[in-house]
Design a protein that fits this description.
It comes from Periconia macrospinosa. By secondary structure, the chain is mostly helical. The protein is built from eight helices and four strands.
Length: 163
């Protein structure tokens, strides 16, 4: 259920990339561990910030990843749980881990239209060019000019660059 991620900085662009490595098998994990992991992912999805905070304080990995490669931060952000996302970021959760489908946390928040979450992720260092589609592509797709401005992207509007 919990996968590890590694950081590879050897690509030609010198940008940090994130790769998800699934565990050999979740069959090797005791049922109680799988049940706890499922509960933690549900807490992130539902925005149960106080309870999730207690688990983080007790040592739950801040970048715990489910079988799909979704982190706690990705689940909280995708579901618009800004306070939960904030707690995870403050605990040191990485906003630049891609899930198993190559999607980024911030692109998911843009896709869902969560203004507060998008702004917070961006301010905490989420890479808007990471993943496919990336956050810039999603903002363009949905005509979110305010996010494109936030991301520092100038768009052509009726033949003229918007300022």
């Amino acid at each position: 259920m919990a996968a590890l991620h590694s950081h590879d900085t050897t690509d030609s662009t010198q940008k940090e990339t994130h790769q998800i490595n699934a565990p050999p098998s979740t069959l090797d994990l005791p049922p109680a561990v799988l049940d706890l992991a499922a509960k933690l992912f549900d807490l992130a999805r539902s925005g149960s910030t106080d309870l999730l905070s207690q688990y983080l304080a007790a040592g739950v990995p801040k970048d715990l990843t489910n079988a799909s490669g979704d982190t706690l931060l990705m689940l909280a952000s995708y579901n618009g749980n800004a306070e939960t996302a904030k707690v995870l970021l403050e605990a040191g959760a990485d906003p630049n881990i891609l899930n198993g489908r190559g999607q980024s946390v911030i692109a998911g928040a843009v896709f869902k239209g969560w203004d507060e979450v998008v702004r917070m992720l961006y301010e905490k260092g989420a890479d808007v060019d990471l993943g496919h589609p990336n956050a810039v592509d999603c903002a363009r797709m949905f005509g979110k000019q305010e996010w494109l401005r936030l991301f520092g992207v100038e768009e052509e509007v009726h033949g003229m660059a918007e300022h």
